[in-house]
Amino acid sequence: MIGRFVLFVLCMAAAVGGCSNGDTVTVTHNAEDGGSWANWHAEKRSVDRVADAAINEPGGGDYAKAADAIRGSSRPPAVKQFELGQLIVGGIMDDAPRRPPEDLEQGLRMMEDSTVTAGQKDEGAVQQLRFLFERGDGKPPHGFPTDPQVAACWLAVEERRSDDPAGCIILRRSRMPHVGG
Fold it and tell me: What is the pTM (predicted TM-score) of this model?
């Protein structure tokens, strides 16, 4: 199931106890800041555990519960936006019985827009977008189309041959104005 694969990065933090999803934090040696980092990291691990448990619940997972955990987290805005988009897209593509109310296009737009949102980004966002358009998912009822041109655009950004994620967003939206689902 592609949605669960896409969420692998999100859930690894709980399993290995480290930071994933590009939630990079500068570690300081100041005791005051160190406590703040420890609190942030503990909250991140707790949210990751809740999200992981939710998407792995029996009967298809509860993507809505996982999304609520991310929405209530203290993650940076662009990271939160990307992860919410992943949960929306993943829940739809997995045909999960419990998922966030947003549709596939809204989830995809959240993932795309996170790459141009100011501030700290999810380091895997560009790669995950490339994967989506490179591999797609043709399973009914919520198929996701492949698009080699859009995938190539995200690959150029991923490999740093291009610094224009906005161009990839414009390209996708002009080629596929509404990805259904």
Answer: 0.79
Looking at residue 81, its amino acid is Q
Compute the distance between CA of residue 116 and CA of residue 153 in angstroms, rounded to an integer: 15
Alpha helices in the chain (DSSP H): 2-6, 8-16, 31-55, 63-71, 77-93, 104-114, 125-135, 148-158, 165-175
Q: What is the pLDDT of residues 114-141, one digit of tens each?
A: 999 988 888 899 999 999 999 988 676 6
Q: How many CB atoms lie within 10 A of CB 90?
A: 26
Rounded CA separation 85/112 (Å): 9
d(CA 76, CA 74): 7
Residue 16 exposed, middle or buried by CB count within 10 Å (0-12, 13-18, 19+): exposed
Looking at residue 9, its amino acid is V
**How far apart (Å, rounded) are the C-alpha atoms in residues 17 and 84?**
21
